[in-house]
Amino acid sequence: xxxxxxxxxxxxxxxSDTLYGPLLALLRKDVEFVGIWGRSEDKAKALGEKYGVPxxxxxxxxxxxxxxxxxxxxxxxxxxxxxxxxxxxxGLHALLETPIxxxxxxxxxxxxxxxxxxxxIEVAEQYYRRPVERIKRSLIQxxxxxxxxxxxxxxxxxxxxxxxxxRSYIGFDVPVVSVNGATxxxxxxxxxxxxxxxxxxxxxQWEHAVLHFADSRLGFFNWSSIAYDSPLRWLRSTKFFAExxxxxxxxxxxxxxxxxxxxxxxxERRFHNVGGMETLSEIIAHTQPEVSWRNPFRGYYMDDExxxxxxCLMSLVNAIRENxxxxxxxxxxxxxxxxxLAMLDSALQGGAPMTLKPGGGG
Length: 362
Prior knowledge:
Strand content: 25-35%
Number of helices: 9
Strand order of the largest sheet: 14-13-12-11-7-10-9-8-18
CATH topology of the largest domain: Dihydrodipicolinate Reductase, domain 2
Low-confidence stretches: none
Radius of gyration: 21 Å
Order of helices and strands: EHEHEHEHEHEHEHEEEEEEEEEEHHE
Shape: globular
CATH class of the largest domain: Alpha Beta
Number of domains: 2
């Protein structure tokens, strides 16, 4: 398929308004924004009028009247699977929000119908696509660190987001074969909660898990329910430990040539001017030889988060155009959700190992 891909946005959430609407307008050389659907007539109308596109509360009517190629599904967590199934049943390619579905049966139904009808499905897992994660993956793939032996996520994304980051270091092609999980709850000192903007006593729910990979490597998942809005829990980071070095967040080290000391790997963010705004052009890792990641959206003004989501969107566009698999896709998304559900199941059973099917499925 050549030319611009015709997209509709399904859902009237804040994310539809402040992220997907602007992205579709910005990337208009590649995409055409042709319609909005929502359950609420008032919200659908408001968004449609804001972006100058037709609005609908009936999915079949939307499909028949605007004839889209693909849909961005941006709805609440519980509705992902149900609406994802409806979209593929309508014959549309889709960018689905995370997780692909809460219920793995819904994920399987989406995957099966998409495969049968030749539809492309991408999932908007943006955490591992952020620029700093891209340069880390580039270094790993270039062999600079050797094999990554263990990977950690400490509060950098809950559930499937955190799992995807761990798997990005070990390798998305390496199956998770089993998971052990644990949970605990504690009272903590009164403090200010940034999200609710309240001050008082709080309870903290902890989640921990060990991911066992097929080649005996390990992943460690750590999460606190107050991680995002508490001055008590200021850490949000990932780590990996490899044969030749390690990383804590964006602090990367290799061993010195004499084997006696850690040697920092300097990451240089280079910028250029787009419409009067400084825009990330590339990140250079000063190793021997140098390794770089170049921003594919350097012609637009975008922050790091928008770059990552634009990457999700263009992965689907390119998959449709070239009739190729998207970068992450529904099987990887299903794996991350299966691991997340297995962590919770294990915790409920006192840490008993939960075995996953080949490929990571539950």
